[in-house]
Amino acid sequence: MYKYLLCWRYLRTRYIALASIISVMLGVATMIVVNSVMAGFSTMMQERLHGTLSDIIIESFSLNGFDNPDEVMAAIQEAVGDRVDAMAPSLQLFGYAMIPVGGGEHLTREVQIIGVRPEDRAKVGDFAQYLVHQSRPGQDELPRAEPTFHVPDEYRLNTYAGQVYQQTDPDDPFIGLLEQDMESLVPADGMILGYAIGTVHRPETGEDMFIAPQGSKVILHFPSAGRTPEAKTGEFTVVSYFKSGMSEYDSMQVYVPIDRIQFLRGQDGFVNQIQVKAKPGTDLDTLARDIRLAMEGKWPTRFLVSTWEQKQGPLLAAVQVEQNILNILLFFIIAVAGFGILGIFSMIVVEKTRDIGILKALGASDSGVRGIFLGYGLTLGMVGSLVGMTGGLLFVKYINEIEKGLSTITGRKVFDDSIYYFPEIPTLVEPLTVAWIVVGALVIAVAASVWPAQRASRMHPVKALRYE
Asked: Which of 57, 44, 48, 8 is nearest to 274 (CA)?
């Protein structure tokens, strides 16, 4: 019983131990906050990558693709039909987009052109969830758009100013001119434009300015198929925007009707990618392997089959490595607290030498004296860990409110959503991670008190009483 009483007394009266408690607390809280934010970013990024890429991606080795997509999908259905929920072919290539910005000037951007059937693409991933319309005055959020390339009749494009007009005055001579020459001004084929391609962010207002508003005519330049590619051109009307939250996609991808891009390239019926959505609970690695075997059996060395994780393996691995390195560096904070406990306990052993001698003379055993210091170290670790865990979890819960407060105080955004494409800081608290952080802090605190405790337990009562 005396061991617990002495531990409690030292904890209340030895204010130098407060430094060790604060060190452990800060280390635990920092690791919980960093791990929660990193896990939130990683999870959000994986969800968006997965939603954009679907479960399984089947690509041809040649960018020219293949002309039998129905036969390929039938072979996949025959091989793994009970595990496949939907499939969608697409034709992907790189090119340039020319966006009119007024005065006869055009903004040229390198883009990835993706020919799809929007209704099929929506079945294999979260494509439909990322489609938005241009915001209107007074709207806080971008309205959702349907997965379609249909060009509404009300779009009227002024090619000189690059602005969208609606027919409100039938007697307007400009509107009449547009009605007479509608085919030349508004292409019949719609386009879903990457959000970051069609907008420019204004830091001073925090808003996005549309440089390619809905109804704008965008000209695409891309190579034709064949051994000697030729430059091809197509005109499309912006009907909606693709905003996944991943700048890699939002700043590069444009979606157009697959039939139209096939015709313009002289590749009727050709595709170079098939995306496959698996049924819930299906093991994707096994499914990809079975599809790969089926493809190799009929078309050797013609297709590349991969899961969405394999497709984005380097990016996901980089995030994981970054998180692991941060954990190692931050764990040094708790290690520093451990050395502080070691130094404090060594001082206490020297200071309390005579008291230790009295305890041993009164019959305290070596294990009893050792238990006092080990218990003291465990108590410090427990108090610091529990306070740090509570503070860290509260910080994570209110992190966006804290960010807004800091942004108000500093006058600039701490978390700029225009960079990260997230409306707020994503967090994810993993109970297992919190548990090993707390347990790790306790282990370090107890380990740091082992040597002083062992030294105190080995003291001879007579020598300790004679210590000056």
From this structure: 57
DSSP string of 118-184, one letter each residue:
HHHHTTSSSGGGGEEPPPPTT-SSPPB--S-----TT-EEETTTTEEE----TT-HHHHHHHHTHHH
Q: Do 295 and 68 form a contact (C-beta atoms < 8 A)?
A: no
Q: What are phi and psi of 385, to 5 degrees?
A: -70, -45
Among 142, 169, 146, 147, which residue's Cα sits nearest to residue 156? 169
d(CA 219, CA 108): 9
Query: 3-class DSSP state for residue 463?
Result: helix
- Closest C-alpha to 256, from 185, 192, 195, 211: 192
- Residue entry with tokens 């070691």: 342
CA dist 173 and 182 (Å) reads 14
- Residue indicated by tokens 């434009």: 193
Parallel/antiparallel/unpaired status of strands 105-116 and 253-257: parallel
DSSP element (H, E) containing 418: helix 417-420
Q: Closest Cα to residue 265, out of 274, 275, 273, 256?
A: 256
- Tell which residue, 199, 196, 201, has the closest CA to residue 243: 196
Q: What DSSP designation does 412 have?
A: S
* Rounded average pLDDT over 83-101: 92
Closest CA relative to residue 48, chosen from 304, 422, 416: 422
Q: Give the residue carrying structure tokens 């007579």.
A: 462
Q: What are the residues facing 165 on neighbouring strands?
A: 156
Q: What span, in angstroms and rounded, lies between the C-alpha atoms of 248 and 194?
A: 10
Q: Which two tokens stand for residue 332?
A: 């040094």
Contact by Cβ (8 Å): 58, 73: no
User: In this predicted model, what pLDDT tens digit does every residue of 304-338 receive, in sequence order?
Assistant: 999 988 887 777 777 778 778 877 877 777 777 77
**pTM (2 decimals)?**
0.74
Six-digit token string for 82:
């009970």
Encoded tokens for 27: 């280390």
